[in-house]
């Protein structure tokens, strides 16, 4: 008598969330959700859009560059809101948001002074784990010329999402997906460490 194979165990916790994101990466609202995620993160939301972008790219490597470009577009658009918060609404929304993120005003002031003197640092620091909302708000507070801000914002977001993540997924998608799925917990821990490192760097190194 042939024995019936036991059903595969359903993923739980973090793996269940990862499986859900892969299943829904081609859904009707996936691209809209990614756009909202990227827009919000560049101005006020604490979690980077990479957590949604990378699974979507892994689910369909052929669309990796299109997804990366879409994420870049909406991140730059969200950066405009962050810039406006610093330039126009600092005394209200800006101060409240920085307080909610537990970022010292001295950190914002240091970035403001740096961008006022050298606006190109926007393009450099946008690639680091430093929260991008802090970069955009500080640039607005520094009154960086808007055209220069948009140029550096477009450069840094394009390099991060299109050149780095899009290219890596396009070239090593299957290997990357295998690695992530085998070591999902480790990847998540590393990601959290990078986020925390960015907050610490913004707080103590600038």
Key descriptive features of the protein:
single chain; 206 residues; mainly alpha; 10 helices; globular
Description:
The model has no long low-confidence stretch (mean pLDDT 81). The radius of gyration is 19 Å and the shape is globular. The chain has ten helices and no strands. The chain is mainly alpha-helical and 206 residues long. Helix 4 crosses helix 9 and helix 6 crosses helix 8.
What is the quaternary state of this protein?
single chain
Rounded mean pLDDT score: 81
- From the alpha-carbon coordinates, what is the Rg to the nearest angstrom? 19 Å
Shape: globular
**Low-confidence region ranges:** none
Count of alpha/pi helices: 10
Report how far apart the termini are: 71 Å
Would you list the SSEs in sequence order as H and E? HHHHHHHHHH
Number of strands: 0
Helix content: over 70%
| Class by alpha and beta content | mainly alpha
Strand proportion, as a percent range, falls in under 5%
Profile the largest sheet.
none
Summarize the SSE layout with pairings.
Blueprint: H1 13-23, H2 30-41, H3 50-59, H4 64-88, H5 90-100, H6 105-117, H7 121-125, H8 132-141, H9 146-182, H10 184-204
Brief digest:
By secondary structure, the chain is mainly α.
């Amino acid at each position: 008598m042939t024995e019936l194979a036991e059903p595969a165990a359903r993923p739980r916790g973090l793996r269940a969330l990862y499986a859900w994101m892969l299943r829904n990466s081609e859904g009707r609202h996936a691209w809209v959700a990614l756009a909202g995620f990227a827009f919000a993160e560049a101005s006020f939301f604490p979690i980077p859009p990479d957590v949604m972008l990378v699974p979507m790219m892994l689910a369909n490597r052929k669309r990796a560059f299109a997804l990366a470009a879409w994420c870049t577009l909406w991140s730059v658009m969200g950066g405009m809101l962050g810039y406006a918060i610093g330039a126009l609404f600092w005394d209200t929304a800006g101060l409240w948001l920085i307080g909610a993120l537990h970022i010292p005003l001295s950190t914002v002031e240091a970035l403001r002074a740096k961008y006022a003197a050298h606006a190109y640092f926007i393009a450099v620091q946008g690639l680091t784990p430093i929260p991008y909302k802090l970069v955009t708000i500080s640039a607005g507070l520094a009154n960086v010329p808007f055209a220069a801000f948009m140029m550096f914002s477009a450069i840094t977001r394009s390099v991060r999402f299109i050149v780095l993540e899009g290219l890596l997924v396009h070239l090593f998608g299957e290997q990357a997906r295998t690695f992530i799925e085998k070591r999902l917990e480790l990847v998540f821990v590393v990601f959290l460490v990078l986020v925390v490192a960015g907050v610490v760097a913004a707080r103590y190194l600038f």
